[in-house]
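Please, structure for the following, as tokens.
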Amino acid sequence: MSPQRQTHEHKTTLQLQGQQVNVIIKASQRKSLRLSVNHNGEVEVKIPLRCPKHEIMAFLTRHNQWLEDRLDQFKQVQQLQRQQMQHLGETYRFRRSEQSHKQPVLMAGVCYYPNIWTETQLLEKVERWQREQAKELYQQLIDHWWPQFSQGALISKPILRIKKMRSRWGSLSSKGYINLNLKLMELDPKLIEMVVVHELCHSHYFDHSTHFYRLMAEKLPHYKQLEAQLRVVEKNCAY
């Protein structure tokens, strides 16, 4: 049995742009320091165990401008999210409606929502609605494609789990779970399908070997073009 991985976490604050910003410091068995801004606008610092405090502060100071730029970008994204949403490759601007509907209604580039919803409720309810839509769409794609993978697979038909993931569009575990990013619902359906097929290919090969990509090409001959489109999305995606 391998030794248990040591991790320690504590929180502090940092003065940036005249404001106190939350900082989460995560110490683990790693060799380098890494800096990021999470989806809550908090600074995350990953450090090696027993890293001296003065080294952490020096690291933050050296990357002060980078942090300010990222936080500015985060604020811009947050503001944009209060104005519009992306759904299946299309952009919809939010607009209040006097109609008595309980769910967002997408029509001609507009997302209509009940007048009684506050701004906070809008974002929460839209995310909840997108999660429901994701559950239905992702499961349909899994059901459609699984028969092409079931024979010779290393796992049984995977169980869907929808997550908000920062650095992955999806993953497949050896325990039989297929994890798909909720943010996929913002993308063109063809890209969503490509991610699903990619993860199902892992039911035969858990690595990215030549055999894996041969299977990928067999199932989706044009997958390289789709991957290129996804890379463009990733490059333009702030969070």
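The chain has a mean pLDDT of 90. The chain has three domains: 7-79, 81-125, 128-236.
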